[in-house]
Amino acid sequence: MTRPRLAAAAAVLAGSCTLAACGGGGGSATAAAPSLTTSVPAPSKDVGTLTWNLPPGEPPTLDPAQSAIESVSTPLANMCEGLFGFGPNYERRPALATSVDHPDDLTYVIHLREGVKFWDGKPVTPDDVVYSVKRILDPKLGSSWIGWAERLRSIEPTGAHEVTIKLRQPDVLVPNFFATPAFDVVEKAFAESAGKSFGTAGHGVMCTGPYKLAGWTQGQNITLTRNDAWWNTQVKPKVKNLRFTFITDPSAQTAALDSGDVDGQFSVPRAAHVRLKDKGNLLFGQSLSPTFLSVLNQKGALSDPATRQAVQALIDYKGIIKSVYQGAAQPLRALVPPAAWGYGKDVYQQAYNALPQPAQDLEKAKQLVAGSAKAKQKIVLAYTTAIDEESRTATAIADAASQAGMHIQLKPLTAEQYGAMFASPQARAGVDLFLSSGYLDFPEPLTYYQFFTTGNFYNFAGYSNKEYDTAIRTAIATPDPAARARLVTKAQGIMAHDLVNIPIATQYVNVYYKAGLTGLVPRQNYLYVPWATELGGK
């Protein structure tokens, strides 16, 4: 499932500014791209308590079914486990399952690891696995992970340590989800007893992972403690206790990291980079995250292709990357970033190279506007004020539009309003363009492109192209990687031509931790793997 970042840095820009004037605290409009970290020394010393901040704020729950936002998934990745996990390159690794058989296009037979126990000492059974999956599929729970099961026929225990999944139609995406919270296993008896209180501060959760919930003082912190009975004896976590804080203000985050009151966090505010880079470990890595404009209203000004082309031409891609992201991003030619090409890379690269390099061309934008009555109409651009980079990007786009003779009216959204945009047609009413960032759960471009097929829940604008639909639906049933890549890139080209969305950039994932720590490499999959097991003292 594609995950929107529902909240991040809570800075709000007041008024209008140019890119040069809006560089984040100490950042330069000519900031150089940071080097990417692919390895660091392993830890050698134990750590008693590690304090880690959650920049989106306090999680509303610790229920794996609701782990579609970073405040939930960041701590939960250390607590609950699925059938498989992700390795450094998103290769699937055995976890609560040791292997999976795929005897035909519609069947997956999962072989469960024997001897695994929940934190309370009770054994994990096939009934727990099936209950956990079916629980997420209950529409009343409102889990976004339900999306993986569009072609599911059944999931049932078929042996003492075996579960079998049957599909109605082939779906190459399904095995990837075995390593995501869609298949996180919780204890059936505990969850049923907790009812609606499952995952709350008052009741907690019951999982199998390397850390277990020790306490949750609402409004202050969440504490996890090491599960010394974890089944994975090959990994010995160095950190005994994890204490999560909920500082959302970027300035306060910077001060807490600088002073050492907080030992680390993901998604460090851009304004803090200069201040922290020589203080401890500020590391960057490739991400599966695109930032882009979605066309929400196909009946207004944007119904004219010239209007969409003008918007694409007026964006200062280089300026945004240098000033807003301080070089920690790359421009995008297509919606799915190159880091998310998990197969058929030669096919994807060739198709990507054939797309135009994004570049600002104000003269082209002016000419398009001059020849289009629609392009002169007001365009409402919605964005969230909870993400500093997106506030600045939206402002820059509106400023450039005015230079091209267009009128883009900004509509700032709170984090709550931003989240509603993904679920409520009423929240999207009156909005023409929507600026957002998200991330793919694993490197499979289909996970994004399928959302633009006719009738898809996330196809907010109602885009419909039969040739696009056919390419995507055929790709979902195509196991051969090269053949699938050719189908996906065909759909990608159609999307680029129709300008259903306008890609802007893919930003690097970043992490900071203090100088005395080591072991953690910044990767997008920190949302789904027990990242704290990699950390420790030097």
Automatic annotation (TrEMBL):
Membrane topology: Lipid-anchor
Localization annotation: Cell membrane
Pfam families, sorted: SBP_bac_5
Gene3D superfamilies: Dipeptide-binding Protein, Domain 1, Dipeptide-binding Protein, Domain 3, Periplasmic binding protein-like II
Domain of life: Bacteria
PROSITE patterns, sorted: PROKAR_LIPOPROTEIN (PS51257), SBP_BACTERIAL_5 (PS01040)
Alphabetical keyword list: Signal
Family the entry assigns: Belongs to the bacterial solute-binding protein 5 family.
Full protein name: ABC transporter substrate-binding protein
Phylogenetic placement of the source organism: Bacteria, Bacillati, Actinomycetota, Actinomycetes, Streptosporangiales
